[in-house]
Backbone:
């Protein structure tokens, strides 16, 4: 019996409507066939760079859909596949509608990711309608939920109402009792926070702050707040009420740097913010609501929630958790949701070996095998997601399609317990390298090589190939056992065998990571001058010469320290003093002070000269002292004070308060005493 595509489509539309669910529908064929399918689906919008029509948006304007509820959508994936936007668009579709995925099956061999993606057209939750060839409908069972649909459209779900009441109690109840909202995508965490904020603002004059790694994460929160309360827009990042209440956005780094005052703090997508920053939030602010997506790419999923709960147990014993379980815009057992989880590994969790005592074996993983080995791919990707606080669906594309990838796995028996992902960069022709340094070209990938070259003006960096370590991940139970070191050493062996002279990496600088990399012989080559808004850290790029040191290597390191000496008082005036000390220890940051300068420092230490008369000499001596001190010599309070006042030029009043002195006079006296103790006897 022959079933025609339009008949299949109608059957699918009826199933979606009766079950109040959504289906992914793969469609392939020529433009005329595609237009007939789109028309028969009654799509609200088509996102395509190829098709034309009144309801067609180009991919670069797909963000217009975010935060909005939509009927059926069609995404044209024939010329490219932006998975971040696909997943975001899927979250906008309400129950009873379809997500049409327009594909080109002839692209199968061009991309390993696309090859795997097309296979998910045969998933039990998906339909595949072809102009030529066999079509198929989903085999996943769906229950009709007509009454439930009406109830949900009338207001909030029961879970959302529980969340709203819990948020209100954070403000009205005892201090230091935060709430953690947890749920999968589409359960209405952000909207619940927005509704609660609006109701609190309308009841009395309240200042409510919202933080998240990106403002785009909280647009839904602001939209629901504006819809629920009589609120006025005050720019893009703020809503106000007639009684003086305000809801405003503040980036995580500014939140902790400026410490603005408000009555309540809402932290949306907390999993995308490092735990160290969340810990500081708990110490600084007494009324906080956190939200976290259990499965998804906003952060590290359940792995984050486990670590965060442990931290809450230590730092906020009266905290409460609220789980949002019911979907807001579609019914339970939604086929599109099930398909997204499988296709993009939303629920990927690492496997755990029976024992952690077995020997660790390091093996290379061939990227070409991953699209057809779902077990290894899931193990590998879940490890990488767990280890990093910012991951997006497009990282899965990079893992499968990235050029020049090197993958190493650490195995305990047959179970993957650690992984290293590296990328080959550089090796440019001279003309291309010069164009990159001049800002005329930018080559996809090659992040470390291009950054080092562009920010130093040295095109020689791009001439030599290097290996950039992108991620290192180790299961929590296997950390602190040297597995990360084994993986790095194994990659260095790979570099040596491939005649690649430099292995490098880039990360948000903190003392723990610095100690790890510096202990392996990696040296700083560039330090970014702006803190990352999500992590609150400065980007630090390091490298290690494997066979021979390239001519540019020492030059870049010298430039870093030359500029750092001056940047400490401006760009890095608020850098953690321990990190400053570690960056300068064992460095080539300074020359020895002259005898005359050293004599002035001695006179200062003895109380014969004031601070204002010896700042240059004292600065030169202290920089050299840091650069030559033993790495085992811990940074004490007075060393931190010297860094803050002398190198970072923090004010006398600031350092006096911070380090417990009564004013400049006491602070300067303490500096004299400490300096005298460090000088040769």
Residues:
């Amino acid at each position: 019996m022959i079933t025609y595509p339009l008949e299949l489509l109608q059957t699918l539309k009826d199933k979606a409507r009766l079950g109040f669910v959504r289906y992914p529908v793969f469609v392939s064929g020529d433009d005329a066939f595609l237009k007939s399918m789109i028309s028969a689906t009654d799509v609200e919008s088509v996102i395509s760079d190829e098709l034309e029509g009144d309801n067609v948006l180009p991919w670069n304007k797909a963000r217009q859909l975010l935060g909005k509820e939509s009927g059926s959508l069609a995404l044209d994936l024939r010329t490219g596949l932006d998975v971040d936007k696909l997943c975001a668009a899927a979250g906008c579709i309400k129950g009873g509608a379809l997500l049409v995925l327009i594909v080109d099956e002839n692209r199968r061999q061009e991309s390993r990711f696309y090859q795997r993606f097309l296979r998910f057209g045969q998933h039990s939750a998906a339909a595949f309608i072809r102009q030529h060839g066999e079509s198929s409908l989903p085999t996943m069972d769906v229950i009709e939920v007509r009454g439930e649909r009406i109830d949900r459209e009338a207001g909030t779900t029961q879970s959302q109402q529980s969340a709203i009441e819990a948020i209100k109690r954070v403000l009205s109840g005892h201090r230091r009792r935060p709430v953690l909202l947890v749920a999968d995508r589409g359960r209405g965490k952000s909207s619940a926070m927005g509704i609660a904020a609006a109701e609190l603002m309308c009841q009395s004059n309240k200042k409510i702050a919202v933080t998240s790694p990106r403002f785009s994460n909280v647009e839904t929160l602001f939209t629901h707040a504006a819809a629920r309360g009589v609120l006025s827009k005050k720019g893009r990042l703020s809503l106000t009420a007639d009684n003086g209440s305000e809801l405003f956005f503040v980036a995580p780094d500014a939140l902790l740097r400026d410490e603005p005052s408000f009555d309540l703090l809402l932290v949306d997508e907390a999993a995308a913010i490092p735990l160290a920053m969340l810990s500081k939030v708990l110490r600084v602010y007494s009324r906080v609501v956190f939200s976290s997506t259990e499965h998804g790419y906003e952060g590290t999923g359940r792995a984050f929630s486990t670590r965060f709960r442990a931290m809450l147990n230590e730092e906020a014993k009266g905290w409460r958790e609220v789980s949002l379980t019911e979907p807001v815009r579609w019914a339970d057992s939604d086929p599109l949701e099930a398909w997204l989880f499988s296709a993009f590994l939303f629920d990927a969790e690492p496997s755990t070996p029976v024992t952690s005592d077995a020997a660790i074996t390091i093996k290379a993983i061939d990227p070409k095998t991953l699209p057809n080995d779902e077990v290894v791919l899931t193990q590998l990707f879940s490890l990488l997601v767990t280890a990093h606080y910012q991951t997006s669906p497009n990282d899965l594309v990079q893992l499968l399609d990235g050029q020049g990838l090197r993958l190493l796995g650490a195995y305990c028996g047959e179970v993957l317990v650690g992984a290293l992902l590296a990328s080959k960069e550089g090796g440019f022709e001279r003309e291309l390298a010069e164009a990159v340094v001049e800002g005329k070209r930018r080559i996809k990938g090659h992040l470390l090589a291009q950054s080092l070259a562009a920010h130093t003006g040295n095109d020689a960096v791009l001439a030599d190939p290097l290996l950039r370590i992108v991620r290192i991940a180790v299961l929590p139970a296997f950390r602190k056992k040297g597995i990360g070191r084994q993986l790095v050493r194994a990659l260095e062996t790979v570099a040596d065998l491939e005649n690649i002279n430099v292995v490098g990496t880039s990360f948000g600088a903190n003392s723990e990571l610095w100690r790890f990399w510096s202990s392996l012989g990696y040296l700083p080559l560039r330090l970014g001058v702006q803190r990352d808004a999500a992590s609150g850290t400065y980007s630090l790029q390091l490298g290690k010469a494997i066979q021979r040191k390239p001519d540019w290597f020492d030059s870049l390191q010298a430039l870093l320290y030359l500029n750092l000496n001056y940047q400490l008082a401006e760009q890095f005036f608020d850098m953690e003093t321990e990190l400053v000390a570690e960056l300068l220890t064992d460095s080539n940051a300074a020359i020895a002070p002259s005898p005359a300068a050293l004599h002035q420092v001695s006179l200062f230490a003895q109380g014969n000269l004031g601070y204002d008369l010896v700042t240059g000499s004292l600065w030169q001596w202290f920089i050299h002292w840091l650069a030559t001190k033993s790495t085992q010599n811990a940074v004490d309070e007075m060393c931190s004070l010297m860094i803050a006042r002398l190198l970072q030029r923090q004010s006398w009043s600031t350092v006096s308060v911070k380090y417990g002195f009564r004013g400049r006079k006491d602070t300067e006296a303490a500096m004299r005493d400490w300096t005298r103790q460090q000088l040769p006897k």
